[in-house]
Predict the 3D structure of the following.
Amino acid sequence: MTTDMTVSQGRAALSAVTARAEFGGETTYLTKHGHRAAAVVPAASAELLEQLEDLIDARSVEIALANLDSGKDERVPFIRRSGANPA
């Protein structure tokens, strides 16, 4: 089940919103100016998304390395632009 509510409503009901996510598996979308800005989701859902992102990233790295090994792609040196902020 999913619910939409404004950020202000979510702030006022944070304890209930997190309980519904934790114990009921509910996703609550928080809206700002009529559009979805964020979501409170069950931790298991967020963890699954992170695992999927890691798998996609790992596969992308495998493909890039295979392309380098096969000569399909070539290494491009990193050159810092002058004036760049080395944060």
